[in-house]
């Protein structure tokens, strides 16, 4: 940055810093935020050389900074509110580790079901995973409801032995 630009910014800072600080303090009520915003005004004009700066332009930059800050705060508040709504509905965020563990559990269950006789595995899948009625399953395969219950008992005993309380 040319020396005259640096001296111009320093001169403007000496002249307008107190007014900008007062402007920001009235609006943000936090001295450190007001300092940061005031510094940002001068940072923005320091990148542009060869221009004449007046108070109107500096305060327009200040107003734009406040508008941007307010917009960011509103977006953050909306995001936090949406997270609160999700938590209130007892919806858990997707966790990659939980997704991977779930896939592993499903793969282990599928492998265990493959060890059962095909009819037993199919009946178990229809009843426990598809929530199909025992009578409908029996009618579909042409077997009695009591036979469907026996297949379910065999499958549950096998899977309980394999996975224990994880079911």
TrEMBL record:
Keywords: DNA-binding, Sigma factor, Transcription, Transcription regulation. Pfam families: Sigma70_r2 (PF04542), Sigma70_r4_2 (PF08281). Residues 108-158 form the RNA polymerase sigma factor 70 region 4 type domain. Residues 14-74 form the RNA polymerase sigma-70 region domain. Belongs to the sigma-70 factor family. ECF subfamily. This is Sigma-70 family RNA polymerase sigma factor.
